[in-house]
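explain this.
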Amino acid sequence: MVDKTTIVAVKKALESSPKRNFRESVDLAINLKDVDLSVPKNRIQEDIILPHGHGKALKVCVIGGAELAEKAKGVADLVITPEELGEIADDKKQAKKVASQVDYFIAEAPLMPQIGKRLGIVLAPRGKMPKPILPGDDPAPMIESLRKTVSIRTRNRRTFQAPVGTVEMSPEQLAENIETILKRVTVKLEKGRMNIDSAYVKTTMGPSERVL
């Protein structure tokens, strides 16, 4: 059951945002307190599946051999073979372009060491190291899940944001996405809810409304 106060906050954020000539995103900003994020174990790094997705298409790339590449055709946004992987890794400009254009990567498990060695320097800082998949597995279910996934990375910052949808989604859908993120973040904090100072929802260009 979605908390009514969350729905009310979302409605206010949507209503107070002037109409734009582009589809605005809706973001959740979370402010932590009494957490020492200089200690790596206290940092949050989570991939969270949103119940209602992002409201827009996310791009997923599959890296794998002939069998996986064939299964990924028509499902993934980009398919990279081992041979193409080497070419991309040798061209740093191309590697950065691919990394910036793709939201999530899936890679055949045996290729993970090679990817880490050749592309890790580009993908790791962006939080985009591939999710491994076993040879012969169907990538479609994983691709579908990733397209509904939001990645939370606090690093050493007490304030961080996460996209929860777009202005075209209903307040109820956005509120459920928000509460899904808050629940997961709360579980990861040593003192739970007591470590969250506040949380706000806002559109790309609009004012923020307090959720917590």
Remarks:
- The chain has a mean pLDDT of 95.
